[in-house]
Amino acid sequence: MKKVYILLMHTNTMPSKIIKFFTRYQYTHVGIALEKNCENIYSFGRKKLHSFWTGGFTIEKKHGSFFKYFHKTMCQIYEIDVTKFQFMRLQKILKQMTVQKMRYKYDYFGLILRYFKIPFYRKDKYVCSYFVADVLKQAKIISIQKPSYFIVPKDFTEFPNLNKIYEGQFLKYE
After folding, report:
1. What's 93's domain CATH number?
2. What pLDDT does residue 41 have?
3. Model confidence pTM above 0.90
4. Residue 170 and residue 62: Cα distance in Å, rounded?
């Protein structure tokens, strides 16, 4: 068995504060990591440190510029057991997305529609929670009843087989 790590985060940025205001949930961002130390976190968010308008597929480094700047980021980290096949499949999906990262964009319009539960799909456009749910579903790690594009950060706390292993300031996680 292998493990995959799901991170629920709150960066305390303006977009994060706005999302928190509307959702009333403590964590506003979701990422996925393949290693326990969460050194590489795959997600959808800002591509430029000081601008959230240029969003898309990102790989944030735990000790990179993003978390150095947003060093007070709070998180919950969950682990889920996966088979070797599921892990390899997830790796393949993430590698393909990494190679083609310029084609993937953040779905700002869809973010608003999801809040009002309006079904909306645009090819190669994601928000963080939709992305993580979708890659987990594609890798056959989770089976969910509602469409992936309606998944919100809070939903991850209710997925079966996820085990919370940490809660606190992200940079203090070892």
Report:
1. 3.90.1720.10
2. 97
3. yes
4. 8
